[in-house]
Design brief:
By secondary structure, this protein is of the alpha/beta class. It has two domains: 245 residues, 3-Layer(aba) Sandwich (Aspartate Aminotransferase, domain 2), CATH 3.40.640; 97 residues, Alpha-Beta Complex (Aspartate Aminotransferase, domain 1). It contains 14 helices and twelve strands. It has a seven-stranded mixed beta sheet with strand order 2-8-7-6-5-3-4, with helices on both faces. The protein has a three-stranded antiparallel beta sheet with strand order 9-12-11, with helices on one face. The chain has a two-stranded parallel sheet with strand order 1-10. Helix 3 packs parallel to helix 11.
Length: 393
């Protein structure tokens, strides 16, 4: 078998030299502070058993989708699940994609057109950025959660003061996340909606890390931050990812019937791929049904988030953490070598805490990323923070 070309070897060697080489982890059976399984649905026995029983009861005994959804893969489980997801999120329609990455790449590569403008938060996920790179629209980032900077850019482009546009953009898309994957912080969604409507922009929100964590305060149903603030009718498109709080796989884009029809016709990551298996889609449906009927896991998670933040204050760790009220809590420890060392120390104490290295985050913003769960105990949270205090300070 031929070796790698020298230019690729050099890139790998650079990663090694910078202490930034990515490697697949092994299951060390540690206390989980790293997965995105916020309310434990990936291990939920009811969801596991009920998904199987659903398939048996509906005489859907096949292992695969057998093709693209436009050819042979649009099995009946899809139709019921998309209807349920749309109703749960108070959206006109839902279109399921194979993953959050596929959904973002499919949306941003096909919806914004030449002559349009995309303004996206500088900390948006890589899948959003990759989709934008495939678009024919112009794209510019705005400072993280800085809506003054965002509005300046909107006014600048609308006033045709930028040499990159010969005329005003046809459509302006504002793109951000309701909970950011690395910092765990959130934008002021009400202010953002007001700004988008003031300038007639189309607002697109990725809710990957809000599903199952935030939601309508009257139901505690984990619908996401948009519905917690009652803003679902003000958003052009929402991307809901199922591999985090829902504990399974796939994603859906929520929007109008016209948007769904457009995506079915033009989103290449939807058109040119085999659909999800009936079992995968049934798991999505059953997880949503569980989420709607049972909120004890969400309440436990919220209690743990409060406890984590209280313990940060008690130990004097608050200044080194990014401010967050979500399940994602990040402590900034600059330098790949140092943050990897502290992560290793915590792992040796039995806690699965991962170091996030540059270039995944900017140099100097390396961090430990703690993911909290409904199944973490308060004693575990207190202990891991005390060890962090010992190793870091």
């Amino acid at each position: 078998m031929r070796n790698l070309p020298n230019i690729l070897k050099a890139k790998l060697e650079s990663r090694i030299q910078n202490n930034a080489l990515r490697q697949l982890p092994t299951d060390a059976n540690l206390i989980d502070f790293t997965s995105n399984d916020y309310i434990g649905l990936s291990k939920n026995k009811f969801v596991f058993d009920a998904a199987h029983q659903y398939l048996v009861s509906n005489d859907c005994l096949q292992n695969g989708a057998t093709g693209s959804r436009l050819i042979s893969g649009n099995h009946k489980v899809y139709l019921e699940t998309e209807t349920y997801v749309a109703e749960f999120h108070q959206a006109e329609t839902a279109l399921i994609f194979n993953s959050g990455y596929d959904a973002n790449v499919g949306f941003f590569s096909s919806v914004p057109q030449k002559g349009d403008l995309i303004l996206y938060d500088e900390l948006c996920h890589a899948s959003i950025r990759d989709g934008i790179q495939l678009s024919y629209a112009k794209a510019y980032k705005f400072n993280h959660n800085d809506f003054e900077d965002l509005e300046r850019k909107i006014i600048n482009f609308n006033g045709n003061n930028n040499s990159n546009f010969n005329q005003r953009p046809s459509t302006i898309y504002i793109v951000t996340e309701s909970v950011f994957s690395m910092d765990g912080d959130t934008p002021n969604l009400e202010e953002l909606v007001h700004l988008s409507e003031k300038h007639r922009c189309y607002l697109v929100l990725d809710e990957a890390h809000a599903l199952g964590v935030f939601g309508d305060p009257e139901t505690s149903g984990g619908q996401g931050l948009v519905q917690e603030f009652g803003l679902q009718d003000n958003i052009f498109a929402r991307i809901m990812t199922f591999g985090k709080g829902l504990g399974c796989h796939g994603a859906a884009i929520l929007g109008s019937s016209e948007l769904k029809q457009y995506l079915v016709n033009f989103a290449r990551s939807f058109i040119y791929t085999t659909g999800l298996s009936p079992h995968s889609v049934a798991t999505i449906l059953i997880a949503y049904q569980y989420l709607e009927k049972e909120n004890k896991d969400i309440k436990l998670l919220r209690e743990n988030i409060i406890h984590f933040n209280q313990q940060k204050n008690v130990l004097g760790l608050k200044p080194i953490f990014v401010r967050s009220k979500s399940a994602i809590q990040s402590v900034i420890i600059p330098g790949n070598e140092k943050v990897k060392y502290i992560a290793k120390q915590l792992q040796e104490k039995g806690f699965d805490v991962k170091a996030i290295l540059s270039p995944t985050v900017p140099e100097g913003q390396e961090r430990l990323r703690f993911c909290l769960h409904s199944y973490n105990t308060k004693d575990e949270i207190t202990a891991v923070l005390r060890f962090l205090y010992e190793f870091f300070l």
